[in-house]
Amino acid sequence: KSRNNTVTMLRVDDFFSGIGGVHVALDQAFARLNALATEDATSHLSQEQVQQAPLRPLSFTVRKAYDINANANRIYQLNFGTTPSTRSIAALTAKEVENADVWLLTPPCQPYTRYEPCSSTPFVLFILCCVVLLRMFSKDTHTHTH
Fold first, then answer.
1. Is 129 annotated in the active site?
2. Among residues 43, 87, 108, 112, which is most buried (max CB within 10 A)?
3. What confidence tens digit (pLDDT) does each residue in 14-66 have?
């Protein structure tokens, strides 16, 4: 039994989702963390320690996945029952991604597997999108504080 049956549900956006490898890794990581939330795993803690930092089961739901590769998207759909969007993440707005609690970011691996210079690969798009998203949120934060 867990000490607290309330589940913390995180909303996840999966960028460059591919066939869902990072999705599976997050699922496995949560399974391990949830095992630590059992009474047996916390039996060595005092009641005060448990109350100060209650352990709650974790779960997540993928709100949206994005990948431009149609073959990878078909496999992702078979694995998880939902098809990733083929929309470019460069076209997303802050409003579309602001309600996610977690971003899974799996940069394209072509620079490492096809011996292409990094400047001519989707890897640059990954870095650019990270910068653009951070700037969007920075602008939103500054706008709301004035």
1. no
2. 108
3. 988 999 999 999 999 888 878 776 655 566 667 776 566 556 778 899 999 99
Select which of 109, 118, 129, 130 is catalytic.
109
Q: What is the DSSP letter of 2?
A: B
**Which class for 133: exposed (0-12), middle (13-18), buried (19 or more C-beta within 10 A)?**
buried
- For residues 33 and 113, what is the distance between their CA atoms, to the nearest angstrom? 33
Enumerate residues 6+ apart whose C-beta is below 8 A from 141. Answer: none
Vertex 59, ends 54 and 64: CA angle to 5°?
Answer: 140
From the list 129, 126, 85, the residue with the least C-alpha distance to 107 is 126
The answer to whether 129 touches 108, Cβ cutoff 8 Å, is: no
Whether 108 has a pLDDT exceeding 80, the answer reads no
Taking each helix axis from N to C end, the angle separating 21-36 and 70-80, rounded to the nearest 10 degrees, works out to 30
**Alpha-carbon gap, residue 31 to 59, rounded angstroms:** 9
Tell me what pLDDT residue 42 has. Answer: 60
